[in-house]
Amino acid sequence: MNGTGLLPVEAEGQGKLVITTELGGGGRVPAPVHRLAWSGLTNVLRHVGVVDGEVETRSTLGLPPAVILDGRNPANIVLSPEDGLFEALLEPGDPVAAGQPVGRLWFIDRPDRSPIEIEAPLDGFVAVTKAIPVTEQGDCVFVLGQQIDRAELL
Q1: Residues 38, 97: one domain?
Q2: DSSP states of 63-114
Q3: Which domain holds residue 7?
Q4: CA dihedral of 5, 7, 12, 15, whole degrees rounded to 10
Q5: Are 59 and 16 found together in one domain?
Q6: Number of folded domains in the chain?
Q7: Percent of the chain with pLDDT over 70
Q8: pLDDT tens for residues 72-110?
Q9: In terms of domains, do 42 and 104 share one?
Q10: How far are the Cα atoms of 30, 40, 70, 96 from residue 19, in angstroms, in the given order?
């Protein structure tokens, strides 16, 4: 999906282990995402012994367990059927049922045309929504994931 030229893709092509994250995807990273990224990076470096200190967990921070999403099903990646402006109706982390609208596609060149709703193909959680409204046919407008137990990943 990612094509070529991105650092993780190139590193994987060289047989290197890659740990990466998506930080907003829209050219702007909000402050809470910066804090989360810094915390995650620091914890990984503590875990592998590069940085001293105890790894902070969600429980030590007083947070509920994380919801881990499995997005490997290609049906989770939803593409725009036409050109238009994408309006997200849900935010990352929101639960969604199959058939529920996740966004609308507006047609700025056709003000007489009503927007179309783009629905979730599967039950799950919203993982990503398109940040920049201008959309071309075939652009990814949102990605879903289904909750998976941590033990299934190990």
Answers
A1: no
A2: PPPPPPEE--SGGGEEE-SSSEEEEESS-TT-EE-TT-EEEEEE-TT-TTSP
A3: 1-64
A4: 110
A5: yes
A6: 2
A7: 93
A8: 899 999 999 999 999 999 998 899 999 999 999 999 999
A9: no
A10: 21, 11, 16, 27
Residue pair 111/89 in contact by the 8 Å Cβ criterion: no
Q: Which residue has the tokens 């033990």?
A: 151
DSSP string, 131-153: SSSEE-TT-EEEEEEEE--HHHH
Please check the confidence at residue 141 and state whether its pLDDT lies above 80.
yes
Question: pLDDT tens digits for 10-54?
Answer: 888 899 888 777 665 566 677 888 888 898 899 999 999 999 999
Phi, psi of 11 (to 5 degrees): -65, -45
Residue at token pair 């109706």: 89
Residues 60 and 1 in one domain: yes
The token duo for 50 is 């590069």
pLDDT at 3: 62
